[in-house]
Design brief:
By secondary structure, the protein is an all-alpha fold. The chain is built from twelve helices and no strands. The longest helix has 35 residues.
Length: 291
């Protein structure tokens, strides 16, 4: 029998615990130091341009052009006709975002249950079959593909099929968000408490009734919350897909930048920010109703 060494216990108590969170934090700090060192030491990083007087002079000149300084015409944000055009484009952008979230949400509502692992393998649905497993693989694959392709790439592909307008942008945004909403909703189903469904099975309910009355009511509030969150993201992305002639504020923003009409750009940015703020407020209010 070996003697107890109090010195070893003291050394162990003096050493701090090395856990996974600490290792992650140290790794992050190390990567941050390496990244900043590569930026500061690289000769072509452009970091030194931040401290050049010419850079700040160009920035102030650009801000002046946004405000219409140096132009002989009335700035766009002081022109009623320009405001009318911007408001019309803002309504088109809002319509695009609503269409997009509808295109994403309705298919998800019809397909996210088969994409849940506990439904496919019978833990929640009460039965396991080859068809349910195939549906699980197909639905999960569809979610991966649609969310893996960015909205801008979807819009570039779809605009060659449809005429330019808000419909190609809405379809592109809907496809991308279908994959995101589908994955999130399926994971909510996988985290459900199976006891209500089992109670329905004991009472003689069928597999479909177990899903409709045991799982769906638990998932719907969370699904609506995710849908409203994605709507907030969609309204911010509409201006990006508009760059590829998908309509709304994005297309006009690109054209104004191309023709160096910076006062128009300023007006469109103002309308865009007001639109984003309005959608955020509406979505927050709707989320409170859901809860």
């Amino acid at each position: 029998m070996t003697a107890h060494d109090p010195t070893a216990d003291a050394r162990k108590a003096a050493l701090p615990g090395f856990s996974l969170p600490m290792a992650s934090a140290l790794t992050f700090i190390g990567l941050a130091v390496i990244s900043w060192a590569s930026i500061l030491l690289a000769g072509n990083s452009g970091f030194s341009d931040l401290f050049q007087p010419k850079t700040w002079s160009n920035a102030w000149a650009f801000v002046g052009e946004l405000l219409g300084r140096g132009s002989d015409n009335t700035p766009a944000f002081l022109n009623l006709e320009s405001w009318g055009n911007a408001v019309r484009l803002s309504l088109e952008t809002l319509a695009m975002s609503v269409l997009a979230i509808v295109f994403a949400s309705v298919p998800v509502l019809l397909t996210f249950l088969p994409a849940a692992r506990n439904v496919a393998f019978g833990e929640l649905s009460g039965s396991r079959s080859l068809i349910s497993i195939v549906l699980f693989v197909v639905m999960r694959g569809a979610f991966v593909i649609t969310r893996g392709i960015p909205e801008l790439l979807w819009a570039m592909l779809i605009v060659f099929v449809f005429t330019p307008g808000i419909l190609p942008g809405a379809i592109a945004l809907g496809l991308h968000n279908y994959g995101i909403l589908g994955k999130l909703s399926a994971e909510v189903v996988e985290d459900l408490d199976p006891r209500p469904s089992r109670a329905l099975r004991t009472a003689g309910a069928s597999n479909l009734q177990m899903l409709l009355y045991g799982a769906l009511p638990q998932v719907l509030p969370q699904f609506l919350t995710y849908m409203l969150y994605r709507w907030e993201v969609v309204i911010r992305t509409t201006i990006v897909v508009g760059f590829v002639a998908a309509g709304g504020l994005g297309r006009e923003f690109r054209l104004s930048m191309s023709f160096f009409q910076y006062d128009e750009v300023m007006l469109l940015l103002m309308c865009y920010l007001l639109l984003v703020l309005g959608v955020d407020l509406i979505a927050t209010w709707l989320r409170r109703l859901v809860r």
